[in-house]
From TrEMBL:
Annotated PROSITE patterns: JMJC (PS51184)
Protein name from the UniProt record: Cupin-like domain-containing protein
Residues of the JmjC domain: 112-269
Gene3D superfamilies, sorted: Jelly Rolls (2.60.120.10)
A Pfam entry, by short name: Cupin_8
Domain of life of the native organism: Bacteria
Organism: Duganella rivi
């Protein structure tokens, strides 16, 4: 059975420490947001939770996904991975909430899902009473609303605190080194921007995906209710199940890096273009170059070069990053 995620209790929205928010393993924060008015409304009833959201809604259009009943809440590819099993739409949030309410007694029901919507745009004023204090971190606060759903295992570059504001959710997490055992699908054609595991966690096909059994030995799992939160470190794979007819998740994303740094995904995509198909010995040589200059770089890497002549080997700042980005764009567009 998967290992239970480590838990901490007794903290409130203003009690999150740097030790928690820079951890390299996940942490369940039981009752962290139990005092939020949104959480109290959701505990009263699904309708009260829905009405609480409507209180702040001012008519902005939201992006949503509609899944057919036969998908059983799983937002995924179609059978041959040429497309997806859901329909993206733009809608008014009031209409989405009405649809969730109207479908709550259907089994199986069509899946309705509003994903990663910026709270301050969609629900201005909501965070005045329902928020976390993350200190100096400039986090992106988003809201996710839907009925029962399953989101395939994926990773995110930012660190993440996910707060269950309504309903019940099950999180299954894997450390980054389990990549090869999760049978990840296409990198450049994905359901929602991130590459996902092709394994159906509720019905894993071990004949087709035998190494998934090894991944499960390293899995960590937790079930969260209203007011509970989970810290998910950068790059940890996470599979999320919304288990209730009405679910609301609030999450905060931030990066432990300067704003001028680009996403490493750009480097990965460039590596597909420039290195992946090189002869094996050349790939090995480039592996050594990346080890030396990137993955194990320290103060000794360029110590033999005068500081004024180190170029990209010197520490970066915003101006240096901007100049290098311009140079790279010229090279890619040649």
């Amino acid at each position: 059975m998967p290992e239970a995620i480590r838990e901490v209790s007794g903290l409130g929205p203003n009690d999150l420490t740097d030790a928690i928010l820079t951890a390299t393993t996940p942490v369940v924060l039981r009752g962290l947001a139990s005092g939020w008015p949104m959480v109290r409304a959701a505990l009263e009833s699904d309708r009260a939770g829905s009405d609480y959201l409507r209180r702040y809604y001012q008519g902005a259009t939201v992006g949503a996904m509609l899944g057919p009943p036969e998908a059983a809440g799983r937002f995924f590819y179609n059978d041959d991975l040429s497309g997806f099993n859901f329909q993206p739409i733009h809608a008014k949030l009031n209409g989405v909430l009405d649809e969730i309410e109207n479908k709550r007694h259907m089994n199986p029901a069509p899946t309705v899902y509003v994903g990663s919507t910026t709270i301050d745009t969609c629900l201005p004023g909501f965070r005045q009473f329902n928020d976390l204090n993350l200190g100096h971190r400039d986090a992106l606060a988003s809201i996710w609303i839907g009925n029962r759903s399953r989101i395939a295992a994926h990773y995110d570059l930012p660190d993440n605190v996910a707060v269950v504001a309504a309903g019940q959710r099950r999180f299954t997490l894997f450390p980054p080194e389990q990549l090869e055992n999760l049978y990840v699908g296409p990198v450049d054609f994905t359901p929602a921007g991130q590459a996902v595991s092709l394994v159906d966690f509720l019905q894993p096909d071990f004949d087709k995906f035998p190494r998934f059994a090894e991944a499960l030995k390293h899995a960590q799992v937790a079930e969260l209710g209203p007011g509970d939160a989970l810290f998910i470190p950068s790059m940890w794979w996470h599979h999320i199940e919304a288990l209730s007819p009405f679910n609301v998740l609030v999450n905060y994303w931030w990066r432990q890096s300067p704003d001028y740094m680009d996403t490493p995904t750009n480097a990965l995509m460039a590596a597909f273009l420039t290195m992946r198909d090189l002869p094996p010995e050349q790939r090995k040589a480039w592996q050594e170059i990346f080890r030396h200059y990137i993955f194990e770089a320290d103060e000794e890497t360029a110590a033999h070069i005068p500081p004024h002549a180190r170029g990209v080997l010197a520490p970066f700042n915003a101006d240096g990053a901007r100049a290098l980005r311009t140079q790279l764009l010229k090279r890619l567009n040649r």
